[in-house]
Specification:
With about 325 residues, the chain is mainly alpha-helical. The chain has helices at about 40-45, 50-60, 60-75, 90-105, 110-130, 140-145, 155-175, 180-190, 220-235, 240-255, 260-275, 290-295, 310-330, and strands at about 1-10, 10-25, 25-35.
Length: about 325
């Protein structure tokens, strides 16, 4: 495997093509080519390397392209205002992804953009539903959502779970509806179509399984959602969009307004808020479920109007890192 290695000397970057291979049970790495100090010229340098390197370069194409594009756009990010919820490095990486999204990805033809979202949606739908216990695999999800091939030995609930996720995602993408309380209810109802007959806010109190927090009492759900939107409107021009979306997500999950589907609804809303504020969507991965839930739990004992970075930095950092990773894996076309 080959990849690009960056070395900083005297504050200046130098790039090398590095080979990593296993020899006699040991991993051996060595630099096989110097690629200069200008990230924008790395691809030309790679194209001019001897043929003996080209096969390995082709095999590692996606990894190399991600490095070149992400570092190129990182270099374009000027000094940022301090953000108490994010480290300087992660903040820059988030803004680099946004800049690529706005100036490169969204310049592609509409159908190319939609096709890319189709691919993103498969991974998003698989992860957001499997966090809640859906057993359909990523491969099965791809066949279901792209080819309409129903997986065997899966429940109708699991199948509708993924199909509804796709339907709602593209409803938001295509229609760009006004973000308000009615939209959240509509998102939930569409996500739970053919799965749960209970529409709208729950009409009973619940105990969230394996949770340390108490969801809003049934008589206060509408009031608390109203307070959440009041908080959102008061902060949407004050907080960084990623911070705003992450905190809204946590506060929504704490209210837990529905009988079922709160997590799936919340993660869809999280992405819609990012989209409305011109940031790319993110994927909260199933493999990181425990870290995700732990980060959410940090804010469970706070009131709706609290925005203390000491409480929410872990969650914002988590969502930001997921955004950067899922962006370069899905939108660097």
């Amino acid at each position: 495997m080959v990849y690009i290695y960056k070395k900083i000397v005297g504050g200046k970057p130098y790039y090398y093509l590095r080979l990593s291979q296993r020899v006699d049970g040991k991993v051996i790495t060595k630099d096989v080519a110097y690629l200069g100090s200008d990230v924008s010229k790395i691809q030309n340098q790679l194209d001019g390397l001897p043929k003996k390197h080209q096969a390995n370069i082709r095999k590692s194409h996606r990894t190399i392209k991600r490095f070149i594009e992400s570092h190129y756009f990182l270099d374009k990010i000027e000094k940022l205002k301090e953000n108490r919820y994010l480290s300087k490095n992660l903040h820059r990486e988030i803004e680099a992804a946004r800049l690529h999204f706005q100036t490169r990805f969204l310049k592609f033809p509409h159908q190319t953009i939609r096709d890319t979202y189709e691919g993103f949606l498969i991974e998003f739908a698989y992860n957001t539903t499997s966090i809640e216990g859906n057993t359909i695999t990523l491969k099965e999800a791809a066949k279901l959502l792209m080819e309409d091939l129903t997986p065997k030995e899966r429940t109708s609930r699991e199948i509708f779970d993924l199909q509804n996720t796709k339907k709602v995602f593209f409803y938001l993408f295509d229609e760009k509806p006004t973000f308000d309380e009615e939209l959240i209810i509509k998102i939930h109802d569409l996500l739970l179509e053919n799965i749960d007959v209970r529409k709208g806010y729950r009409t009973h109190d619940i105990r969230v399984f394996k949770s340390r927090f108490k969801a809003s009492d049934v008589q206060y759900i509408s009031t608390d959602i109203g307070l959440l939107f009041k908080w959102y409107n008061a902060n949407k021009k004050k907080l960084h969009p990623l911070v705003l979306a992450s905190l809204f997500h946590q506060k929504f999950e704490h209210i837990h307004p529905f009988s079922d589907g709160n997590g799936r609804t919340g993660r869809m809303v999280l992405n819609y808020l990012l989209f409305l504020h011109e940031y790319p969507p993110t994927i909260i991965k199933k493999k990181n479920r425990s870290e995700y839930l732990a980060a959410l739990a940090k804010g469970d004992r706070t009131a709706i109007d609290i925005i203390d970075p000491a409480i929410f930095k872990e969650l914002v950092t988590y969502v930001g890192a997921e955004l950067v990773d899922s962006y370069w894996n899905n939108f660097n076309i």
